[in-house]
Write a structure and sequence with these properties.
Oligomer: single chain
Order of helices and strands: HHEEEHEHEHEHHHEHEHHEE
Low-confidence stretches: 1-15
Structural class: alpha/beta
Strand order of the largest sheet: 1-2-4-3-5-6-7-8-9-10
CATH superfamily: Alpha/Beta hydrolase fold, catalytic domain
Helix content: 25-40%
Shape: globular
Mean pLDDT: 84
Number of helices: 11
Number of domains: 1
Strand content: 15-25%
Radius of gyration: 21 Å
CATH topology: Rossmann fold
Number of strands: 10
């Protein structure tokens, strides 16, 4: 009897790593899949009487990406492109449109392959590899189809990584505002795996994701290529309470970047609130960055100064600058 019990226990223990990996793979797939429902009516734009167009353009692989183009009256005005974070589509950039549009910028919101109404595999999210090629396609659409030659990009999380990867190889991008980017896929993967998961299981899970989706982790290393963005201006924005991508990562990324560059740290902001709360509050300040980067003859950014942003209940936007040299 005891022998049978020991055999059952041994079987369960032997199968636990496999069950852990399979469960993690399923969890990763669900966590990175795009929203199921999509309504093609941007209510925020309708309510504010902001005109927009449904647009479509092709990726290098021949997939059709779709989104919204919000024009301004001046045809040769600069444009700002928004790149969504994981499990989000073009709607996630809507809250920024009124500020950018009022400041005289064309705006392009689009969905990655497999997201919303864009072509592609809904289960094929690649942490910035394919998504950065989608950014390439969006920039090509603005540059070649719309004739806009001053283009700024802004993205959150994987969107931030995607615009960094794209800008490193794409000189048509004139400025980059990256919100909560990570340094490399291995680092962010390990940081976000459950603490009880052994490292070899985490690595096996990443290998399975690479093989299933057809990408390589070596192609998602912003830390190695961020220096190629210069001499175009780079703005990094990060929350000091971000646990998914610790602030130490963005400090290393900032150190690896070349001037002109600047780093804004938002005190108490998490990975989610840096986008859902802080970025909307800082939209006017981001416009000022793009004005300096895309409209001024010579961009002037503080090379090594860190802008800390603190909560301010008196300020209408809820945040105020506290600009001091970084001493940490």
């Amino acid at each position: 009897m005891w022998l049978k019990v020991l055999k059952v226990i041994s079987s369960v223990l032997a199968g636990s790593p496999l069950l852990m990996v399979l469960g993690s793979v399923i969890g990763e797939t669900v966590a990175t899949m795009p929203p199921v429902l999509f309504h093609n009516i941007p209510l925020l734009l309708d309510e504010r009487h902001i005109p927009y167009e449904d647009v479509a353009f092709l990726t290098p692989e021949g997939l059709t990406l779709r989104g919204w183009f919000i024009p301004v009256a001046e045809p040769d005005a600069p444009a700002i492109l928004y790149a969504p974070s994981t499990a989000n589509d073009q709607r996630s950039g809507l809250s920024l449109v009124p500020t950018f549009h009022a400041a005289g910028y064309h705006v392009l919101l689009f969905s990655y392959r497999g997201h919303a109404r864009s072509d592609g595999n809904r289960w094929g999210f690649t942490y910035g590899v394919a998504e950065s090629r989608d950014v390439d396609a969006a920039v090509r659409f603005l540059y070649e189809t719309r004739g806009i030659h001053r283009i700024g990009t802004i993205g959150h999380s994987v969107g931030a990584v995607s615009i960094i990867l794209s800008a490193a190889r794409n000189p048509r991008i004139g400025a980059v505002a990256a919100v909560a980017p990570f340094n490399n896929l291995e680092e962010v993967w390990m940081t976000n795996c459950p603490p009880i998961m052994p490292p070899f299981v985490s690595n096996l899970m990443l290998q399975m994701s690479e093989r299933r989706k057809g990408f390589r982790r070596e192609d998602v290393r912003p830390l190695q290529i961020v220096g190629r963005i210069a001499p175009r201006p780079l703005l990094l924005i990060h929350g000091t309470a971000d646990r998914r991508i610790p602030v130490a990562q963005v400090r290393r990324l900032f150190a690896a970047a070349q001037a002109p560059k600047t780093l804004w740290l938002v005190e108490e902001a998490t990975h989610a609130s840096i986008r859902n709360r802080a970025l909307d509050a800082l939209a006017q300040d981001v416009v000022a960055f793009f004005d300096m980067a895309l409209r001024a003859p010579v961009p002037r950014l503080p090379e090594t100064q860190v802008f800390r942003l603190v909560a301010d209940p008196v300020n209408a936007r809820g945040w105020t600058f506290e600009a001091t040299p970084d001493s940490t």
